[in-house]
Input
Amino acid sequence: MSGSSEHAAPAPDAPARGALEGLRVIDLSRVLAGPLCSQMLADQGADVIKVEPPGGDETRALGPPVNADGDAAYFTAVNRGKRAIGLDLSQPAGRDVLLTLLDDADVLIENFIPGTMARWGLDYEADLKHRFPQLIYCGISGFGDDGPLGGLPGYDAILQAMCGLMSVNGDPASGPTRIGIPIVDHLTGYTAQSGILLALYHRARTGQGQRVEVTLFDTALSLLVPHAANWMHTQRAPGLLGSAHPNIAPYDRFACQDGAIFLGIVNDRQFRRFCEYAGLAALLEDARFATNRSRLEHRDALRGAIEEALSSRLRGAVCGDLMKLGVPAGPVNSVPEAFEQAHTVHRGMRIDRDGYHGIGTPVRLSRAPARVDRLPPAYAQHTDEVLREAGLDDTRIAALREQGVLPRWPPSKP
Output
């Protein structure tokens, strides 16, 4: 860096490039958390090589619905932007191919049951760390390698149950209920992405790669805000509140004439504005509702008054009016209604392209916008292309295919 105090003139803006352009990711993961992580990296410009076993990623078969290639919509939701190869890692020759791919890779992602990579001679500490000192190795698992549950397989709904998420989701009539999306898998994908980016920043400063460990167990527990903190301070176990909040009132779902809305009032100013709008000014003179603490103590009476006031009103008008007043309120939309909102279109959060339908990326960088350059790949679609780039000639590729190291198509393909 120059010691001059002169500031160089800013360079003209270069053409937009992905923030992660030039990053090479080898993705051995399947199902949801790992593929979602690598898809997010691909959206930001990384070259992601999806390596699938002979049977393929399980989500290819989790349909209908399926696309024109016979792949389930579930698979297409988390695998765009990638190049795909088929590779049998149970064979030594398959592992040799993987090692060749790692020669110029920056990141490896895997979510095998702990111990699998070690059995194949691909353990990070014992086998890969010294051979590829700059490699970021991201291992995703249910519970980690050790401890009382170490090495066991993990699945989203099981972790929701084990880690208390179901115990605070639902109402007394339904009992503990699974959250309707695989939220643990989703957040684990985001957590893995964060860990990889942290490790890349550390590598940029030190030149050293490292292992990133992410577990569904840790991620599920991290979701328990504020329930865990409430319990730690009071020793009272959280219960089922339906759509209500344990610390705020009114913060719940309420019925209007034509459907439900969610009302999220977090301070006294918003409560006053709501009451004045809804014809509930009398509540403002009632000591039971003077503060959030007192409203929590009398939440049932408060709920009854609000339900009566809103029961004859149309939800669209109520939500529009309240939001203009600075009172958070929104309709409880179905999935189609959510994607038909004008703001969804404005934000580019639905992608329809050449038969592909997907959710847009939620991260916006002003100088390096995300791009969807590749549609979800067919099984092994890019095998020859990727291996030629890695230095294998056509004779060698043909021999590997003859040996079954490069499977052509999953036998279970629907």
Q: What stands out?
A: The two ends are 59 Å apart (CA to CA). Residues 1-11 have pLDDT under 50 and may be disordered. DSSP finds 17 helices and eleven strands in the chain.
